[in-house]
Amino acid sequence: MKNTAYRTIWISDLHLGSTQCQADVLLDFLKHNDSEKLYLVGDIIDFWALSKKMYWPRDHNTVIQKILRKARKGSTVTYIAGNHDEVIRQFLGMAFGDIKIVDEATHELMDGRVLWITHGDLFDGIIQHA
C-alpha cells in the first residue's frame, strides 16, 4: 500500500506517557501518511501523567522515532508546546533532531490565508489562574 502524501498534517494531544495514549493507532497513521509539514500541536508527551506514574511502553518510543525519521527524510516538523508538555517551553527556539520547538506558529494555506497555530491552553481559565 502506497503512502498518502499531504501538504500539511496537524497532530495534537497524543499524551505519550499516559495509559490513555493510542500509540498503535497513531503508528498506523504515521506509517501510511506523509507530509511536507508536520505540526505537533501540544500535549504530545504527557509530563503530568509521567509525574504521577512512569509509563512508557515500547510503542511510545516508536512514535518518537517515527516522527524523528520523518523530520530526517525532509518533513518540516514543528513542535508547539501545550499544557501537559509545558516543560518543553524552556527549549523554545531550539531544535532537537530537526524538530523545531516553538510556542506558536503560522501556516499559510494554498489560497494565501494564514493560520495561527497554538495549543490553546493559554486561553484556558484554569491554566491562566493556576
Q: What key phrases describe this protein's structure?
A:
5-stranded mixed beta sheet; 4 helices; single chain; 7 strands; alpha/beta
What can you see in these coordinates?
It is a single chain. The strands form two sheets. Strands 1-2-3-5-4 form a five-stranded mixed sheet. With 130 residues, it is α/β, with parallel strands linked by helices. Helix content is 27%, strand content 28%. Helix 1 runs parallel beside helix 3 (58-72).
Structural class: alpha/beta
Largest sheet at a glance? 5 strands, mixed
What separation lies between the terminal Cα atoms? Answer: 48 Å
- Could you give the count of β-strands? 7
Shape: globular
Name the quaternary structure.
Answer: single chain
SS summary, helix count: 4
Which series of helices and strands comes N to C? EHEHHEEEEEH
Summed over residues and divided by their number, the pLDDT gives a mean of 91
Order of strands in the sheet with most strands: 1-2-3-5-4
The portion of residues forming beta strands comes to 25-35%
What is the alpha-carbon Rg in Å?
15 Å
Can you tell me the residue ranges where pLDDT is under 50 for at least 5 consecutive residues?
Answer: none
DSSP helix fraction = 25-40%
Q: What order do the helices and strands come in, and which of them pair?
A:
Blueprint: E1 4-11, H1 23-32, E2 33-41, H2 47-52, H3 58-72, E3 76-80, E4 95-96, E5 99-102, E6 105-108, E7 114-117, H4 125-128
Parallel strand pairs: 1-2, 2-3, 3-5
Antiparallel strand pairs: 4-5, 6-7
Helix pairs in contact: 1-3
